[in-house]
# Entry
Amino acid sequence: VEKSGNSHGTGTSAFTHMIPGDHAYAVYRTATERRTTLHDFLKAGIDAGQRVAYLSGELPDESEEWLCGDDAVMHRCVGSGQLLLVGAGGPVHRGPSGEPCVDPGRTLQCLQLMADDAMTDGYPALRLAADGTYLTQGLDPARVVPFERGFTSLIEANRMLALCLYADVALPAAIPGILAAGHHGAPARAGTYSAAGLRITPTSSPPGIRLAGELDRTHLPAFVEALAELAQSSGTILLDMRSLTFIDVAAVTAIADTAKKLDEGRQVVLDSPPSMAGRILAKCWQGIPLPRLAIAADRSRPGLLGTTWTAAMGVASLGTGLPA
Amino acid sequence: MTTSLAEPTCSSTLLHEAMFYSDPSEFVAGTVPFIREGLVAGEPALVALMPHKIELLREALGSDASEVTFVDMVGLGGNPACIIPAWRAFCAANDGRYARLRGIGEPIWAARSPVEILEAQLHEQLLNVAFAPGPELLLRCPYDTANLPEDLIAEARRSHPVLAAGGTARHSADFDGARPAVAAFNADLGEPPANAHRLEFRGESGLAAVRQMVGAHAVQAGLDPHRAADLRLAVNELVANSVAYGGGSGSLAVWREARRLVVEVRDGGWIPDVLAGRREPSPDSLTGRGLWLVNQICELVQLRSSRNGTVVRVHTTVAA
# Structure
């Protein structure tokens, strides 16, 4: 099972194998445990080419010293901006630009900005580690769960995954239960496919699936099956790719093939596909129109939704939108 | 040797000429009349050259230049495997409308790196077998004898059936049909260096580890996120091909060579089509897009395949 909500196992592999859309927490007992968990979690993101960030109350230099140690690649990533060390430098919460960020809503706004920046800078995903003890300090324990749930919604709506680290010593007895409620960890929904870095979850109205993680040949049979099932439904087919960070040529081909076979008036809509989807379409369907395939870049702006793939030298033009 | 597959043969619709020149005036003399002749006959012309040569030709052509399509060869042929698709597309676009087309393409110049030149030479050989029936293409390839070493000129004599110099054309005695194209495609690129980082992969479950290793090296090499993403995608497709068609397993090797990051995927499979990755994918096919995409998004790709196996190397320039 991919979803890691609890932290009481040993080892950190559960966290390095998290996929976009995941929101987990870890409770550490020792400084070594904290460092290893955090380092391995961030390093896995660096290797995957993701923007990685650590949010804490520490000074960035301080974080870099204990976290990166003698790992030259990690230090270089601080220099290149792939690894962000976001510290407030004091007891007051501050956002990435140093603005005060004292309330949970403000913190979430800052995180949204960080996710947007990661996409703008060309990273496939934002992998976030947060010092939960610091970010929730002073919060009434009753507000921790709403905060973490808001965080979960944010993660699910972006190409983002997060691990919240809580110090064992700072936890009142009731907190572990509260943490479990605020993070993923519930059993997967019926119909969910989850294997080796990809999760496919059915969605409705319009009928579709939500894809999280990396979609390659390993998952092709399951993906093709899901597409075939959706083709049997009616109306628009929505592929929610907001948490998908990789898609290969075979999967894009399967989507194009599904779209091509749809009846007049129907279409496949890709909601926020990862960058390589556009790259593959531009290079492999150059000059080949796919009128039943649309790309929706921003759900929150329905007027601009639905960019139909016209394949005029790889440039997509505006077309019809998602049904309201 | 017996084989059930048809050996490639020279395309009857291609007239492939090497044109030797040693200074700008010889270059103009070997290209301008050739283009004008075509314009008079109403034949479309496509010219792929380095930017400064395009300027030279535009100037010499005067108002006729507007009748010619110019393409920057540095951009088009950075990866020489992308040049044949451009000529094929030129032919396809004019199929049925014109009986004959003209082209000028200079894929080899002195400043190119040895690996690029090797790939440009393979490209010149493959051109001979790259065209299906369609309009006739008169393709003239300028070679700068003043700046290119003699072995490159000798190879041009082998890869072009017709040689043009000083306003005359003659058949090349060294041209040997389609066989050298196949031999060049079958050639052995040698082993990766001993210090290469290696990963054996088996089955589709190996894909994630491959992407992770490539991603880690891309980050170490300082590639920006877009190029790192392209490299991960390209290598993913190569490994997926190995898993599907190359015997299910293979090996990945990554190393630095001068200012390039080289990623090699090697398997025991055989790709009989010497034009693999250079044929535009058919819209309805469910397969066959991987190698095409790799050629389209990578800076330089080397593909060799024979009965001994397949090797693909992807080269990416990194900061010093």
Remarks:
- Chain A has a mean pLDDT of 79.
